[in-house]
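Page 37, continued from 36.
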């Protein structure tokens, strides 16, 4: 690492292995945007430096083991320092996390003062406008391979963290995840499968945090069950996803298999992930849509009134550009700009801690900032 330059604007070199350089960099910043993935390898020194400096932090990690390990290790220290550490501020997981919160709000408003939201299901659709195949970015593949290999570490981590937040009380029976493939009438021609990303676990943490910290939640907040699914456009892609997913799981469980997956990513992903990544033209022709289906009750269930089927239903939708680069960078930039807004930082956000994006930004104008950057959220019906 080299010495930090004098000008505020410029290039500052700070190696993640150089604690002094990181401390100097973070001490000068209002917000640090960390893009050092795979975060399980390079992310923690940046988080630690931000906590020592009392500097707010966002990243674009979608790695549950890293995210939850940072919460366990630095949650109290960040609260004491008065800084916010907010992971998953890109495609993982602002669209699904914040979208679920906004959909639950719409259900709550429609249900009225005597009602309650119950659940939100999110369906992710990634496609192109000219029929070409979707191309992902290689670091996403790296993180998925390493994360699957570290699944045992994640289970042990969650066991250690059990009880850190109380389980929120949610109206009605538990909404289970739809296992295997399914279709819904509102999405004709689409086949859906549980999304293997971090979104569902992050939404669960959002609901637990806001339920335990009502001062950081919007007025009238009530938690919901949530599930996240990925959709494909045909039975052929359903078959491919199933076959390649099975092969991925088999190989990622062994060290030699992970080496193969990383070395021959194009082969084992049907060309979806290569070290070259998408071209600018690929990015320009790719879009993402997330459909949210929320349910609730106009009369909140209780012990005297067992719940029937939910009688309040809402369909919301988020639309944006290519998720891995275009949407990710725009949403993360909007999150950083929200943190440097002094009014929102002091009035509408937690004072400090390691929190999810929806817990941090749920009461702010983040979605307005995203809409100006081409990422929109709307209520359809």
């Amino acid at each position: 690492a080299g010495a930090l330059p004098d000008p505020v604007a410029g290039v500052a070199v700070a190696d993640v292995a150089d604690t002094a350089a990181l401390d100097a960099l973070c001490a000068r910043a209002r917000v640090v945007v960390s893009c050092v993935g795979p975060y399980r390898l390079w992310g923690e020194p940046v988080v630690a430096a931000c906590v020592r400096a009392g500097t707010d932090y966002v990243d674009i990690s979608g790695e549950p083991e890293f995210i939850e390990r940072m919460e366990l290790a630095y949650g109290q220290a960040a609260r004491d320092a008065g800084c916010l550490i907010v992971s998953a501020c890109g495609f993982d997981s602002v669209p699904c996390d914040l979208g679920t919160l906004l959909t639950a709000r719409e259900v709550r408003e429609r249900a009225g003062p005597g009602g309650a939201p119950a659940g939100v299901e999110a369906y992710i659709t990634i496609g192109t406008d000219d029929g070409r195949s979707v191309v992902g970015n290689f670091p996403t593949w790296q993180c998925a391979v390493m994360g699957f290999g570290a699944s045992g570490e994640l289970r042990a981590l969650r066991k250690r963290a059990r009880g850190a937040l109380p389980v929120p009380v949610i109206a009605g029976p538990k909404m289970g995840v739809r296992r295997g493939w399914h279709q819904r009438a509102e999405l004709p021609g689409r086949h859906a499968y549980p999304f293997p990303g971090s979104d569902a676990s992050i939404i669960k943490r959002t609901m637990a945090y806001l339920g335990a910290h009502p001062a950081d939640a919007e007025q009238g907040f009530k938690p919901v069950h949530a599930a996240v699914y990925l959709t494909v456009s045909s039975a052929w892609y359903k078959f491919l996803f199933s076959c390649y997913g099975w092969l991925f799981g088999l190989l990622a469980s062994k060290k030699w298999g992970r080496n193969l997956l990383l070395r021959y990513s194009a082969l084992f992903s049907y060309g979806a992930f290569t070290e070259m990544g998408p071209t600018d033209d690929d990015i320009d022709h790719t879009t993402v849509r997330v459909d949210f289906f929320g349910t609730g009750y106009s009369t909140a269930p209780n012990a005297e009134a067992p719940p029937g089927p939910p009688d309040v239903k809402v369909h919301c939708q988020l639309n944006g550009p290519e998720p891995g680069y275009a949407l990710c960078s725009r949403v993360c930039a909007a999150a950083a700009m929200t943190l440097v807004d002094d009014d929102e930082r002091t009035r509408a956000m937690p004072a400090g801690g390691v929190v999810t994006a929806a817990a941090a930004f749920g009461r702010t104008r983040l979605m307005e900032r995203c809409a100006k950057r081409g990422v929109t959220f709307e209520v359809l019906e």
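The first strand starts at residue 31 and ends at 34. Flag for discussion at group meeting. The longest helix spans residues 64-81.
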